[in-house]
Prior knowledge:
The structure holds 2 protein chains of 2 kinds. By secondary structure, chain A is an alpha+beta fold. Chain A has helices at 2-11, 13-26, 70-88, 173-187, 231-238, 264-268, 272-279, 316-320, 362-375; strands spanning 57-65, 119-124, 164-170, 191-199, 201-202, 253-262, 331-332, 335-341, 348-358, 382-392. In chain A, strands 5, 6, 7, 8, 9 and 10 form a 6-stranded antiparallel beta sheet that branches. By secondary structure, chain B is α+β, with helices and mostly antiparallel strands. Chain B folds into 2 domains: 3-144, Sandwich (Immunoglobulin-like), CATH 2.60.40.420; 150-391, Up-down Bundle (A middle domain of Talin 1). Helices cover 53% and strands 14% of the residues of chain B. In chain B, the strands form 2 sheets. In chain B, strands 3-9-8-5-6 form a 5-stranded mixed beta sheet, with no helix packed on it. In chain B, strands 2-1-4-7 form a 4-stranded mixed beta sheet. In chain B, strand 5 and strand 6 form a beta hairpin. In chain B, helix 2 packs antiparallel against helix 7 and helix 8 (273-291) runs antiparallel to helix 9. In chain B, 44% of the residues are buried. The model of chain B is unreliable at 1-44 and 142-147 (pLDDT under 50). The A-B interface holds A 66, 99, 101-103, 185, 188-189, 192 and B 274, 336, 340, 375, 378-379, 382-383, 385-386, 388-389, 392.
Amino acid sequence: MATRREFxxxxxxxxxxxxxxxxxxxxxxxxxxxxxxxxxPFHGAHQAGIATAAQDRLVFAAFDVTAAxxxxxxxxxxxxxxxxxxxxxxxxxxxxxxxxNAPPADTGEALGLGPAALTVTFGLGEYIFAPGRFGLSSRxxxxxxxxxxxxxxxxxxAKSGGDICVQACADxxxxxxxxxxxxxxxxxxxxxxxxxxxxxxxxxxTVSTQETPRNLQGFKDGTRxxxxxxxxxxxxxxxxxxxxxxxxxxxxxxVVARRIRMLxxxxxxxxxxxxxxxxxxxxxxxAPLTGHREHDPLDLExxxxxxxxxxxxxxxxxxxxxxxxxxxxxxxxGYSFTDGIDAATGxxxxxxxxxxxxxxxHKQFAAIQTRLGSHDALNExxxxxxxxxxxxxxxxxxxxxxxxxxxx
Amino acid sequence: MVQFPAFDALRWRRVLTAGLxxxxxAAVVSACGSANATSxxxxxxxxxxxKVTLTDGGCSPKKLTTKAGAxxxxxxxxxxxxxxxLEVRKTDGVILGEKEGxxxxxxxxxxxxxxxxxxxxxxxLPLGGGNGTLVVTGKPISxxxxxxxxxxxxxAAxxxxxxxxxxxxxxxxxRFTAALAAGDLGKAQRLYGPTRRHxxxxxxVAESFSSLDSDIDARINNVAPGAPWTGFHHIEQILWEKNxxxxxxxxxxxxxxxxxxxxxxxxxLSYQPAQLANGxxxxxxxxxxxxxxxxxxxxxxxxxxDFQGNxxxxxxxxxxxxxxxxxxxxxxxGNTIAQRFAVVQQxxxxxxxxxxxxxxxxxxxxxxxxxxxSQEVDALAEPLSTVAAxxxx
Lengths: 408, 393
């Protein structure tokens, strides 16, 4: 980190300026997210931050809208879009220093850090479309309705739901934080923070060239993830297609977020074979229990000398596999988190902030989670403590703003 | 107890005198502001005195009619326990002047300059109602002048406001420290919150003098190792944690001297318009960081009374700047801020109680309201923070 910061500080605006030019071609080219001068294009058919190679850091925030009218909501989304566009270019949202008698328009902590591959991705919660609220009930994306209580849910209302979610991902934690902070500030009077989650390290590879990272259980996570650079899979599983009745929402997606607390102490004192049987993979290599290398295919039929399945019936990989879920797959984009310690137990409060994109949250996430929540051996070691479902509008046109089709 | 009526009578005279001279100065300021200013009070020997009685039914009379100009409201409580204050408000809820803490048989007064229009005489009863109406007739007294002149008027009026708050602080502190010296624990505890409210209204001004704010208002964790801990909060700790006045007499003397020092110093101050705006924001920051959190009055839990002091002071400074904001093209901003002040005040009004303190203790504040207050104060302070740049030359 220090090295990167020093470099950027020394290079100053020049580095950011160069990166803007390089970013256009670098969209899918970076492999490990280590170059913080990079710019991810803000405009496109789909919002950035979904197919984008997963950056190192996350700040995810959910807001409640306090604005009373459709016009004020529109203005909020317009202002947020303008600010997000600037920040993804590594630019401040306004002069960070100017009038001595005015608070600086930009809070300043991201100055000199470059764009850091920042993406800002917006989603809309169900209640935005509530009848009688903003007059938008006839424009609700067709699958944006509550997932209901799924097996294993222990969601804390204080860490769940919200009217608008903002996912800020960057290769520099302070760049991601700055994005959420300045959006929150711009939103004051129209939106209030409901909950927020900081993710300190990615747990997913979302393009074919990224290595699979490890989650806090020490296992490689997301080996069989969908990849943003596989257009066929993205169209099949992630992007809302032309069959969506709400024309404005075509090209969008649905995001499910889950704050999954890991019961670390219990996990850490379970023996290696238990850990591996729980997941269905070998800890070091990440290979399935039926293979030798990470990307070897799962053999869900294989049986051991005792006649029992080599990958146990309740192993996580078996229950989560598309082949056992009617082919359902999701694009996972999760991050490890910690919020210090649980004051009641003194245990680390840490885990996986799970983020998944899909075109049908009911047939994809909810269907998978229904199986996992009731049978997964992993349930002994995790708790779903928060999260939400949001409709992610399609990409933003130059000169437009997020969800502008909703107001057309 | 025998002494108190005499003491209150003295206080009555002083408050009235302060009110009269303040009105006179306000009139002079207005008159200087413009050559063609209309002053209806010029033909009168002094402010018109309007008598309002607080009764079980609220304000009496329910309707008053008078001419525009300087008006002194003489308020008497006829023995009712249901209402203890009179507020004069604009119909949009902005408080123009008030006299609080008038429990049975107490009286008090305040003076305002009012132009023609309808006003609310607020005598809020516990279950609602009780208000009256004030109709002011005659020619407008507001002075149409250039922005710079409006700012000069704002600054002059703010100086008066600060001096009056500090005068009331000084009076209250004397009564408070007299109770400490007399060993009257109950009385000292009753006077603690209402006295402090005047300090909380003008705290940023006190902060402009190097050590006065910490001498008067430091919390235990603000005191440098080895340095003496003086002021309200050390006394608060003894009164509530140790439940005694023992050991407070010397602290009381020091507090009296520090408040007297403050009064002498504020008399020498002059202000810039931006200071009013920034002071207003600072007061809201005080609300956010030390009142909503219960940090300020951690032993007595009188934080909501201090909250009212901060809010009143912040609103006063803003309302004084508002004519200048309106005149220089920022009317919408002014309306937004005024509306958000009203939202916070409405929330706080739900915690008003008919007790000497006037407010519930901090423990009554619900978790949901703590969050709501924080967000409402944010929504108010953010646009308010842009005012300074718009009123500085």
